[in-house]
Design goal:
The chain is mostly helical and about 40 residues long. It has one domain. The longest helix has about 40 residues. It comes from Homo sapiens (Human). This is Alternative protein TSR1.
């Protein structure tokens, strides 16, 4: 039981880290797109 809980926590942490990385990359892309639009204007 204890081992399963520890593994579950580690998996949750990894999922959170991956989600944060994905969101961060999306935010960077959005910022780049906005900058390009501003440059065109």
């Amino acid at each position: 039981m204890v081992a399963a809980k520890v593994v579950g926590k580690e998996m949750n942490m990894n999922m959170m880290i991956w989600n944060m990385r994905i969101l961060w990359r999306r935010n960077l892309r959005m910022r780049v797109v906005k900058k390009r639009k501003n440059m065109k204007l």
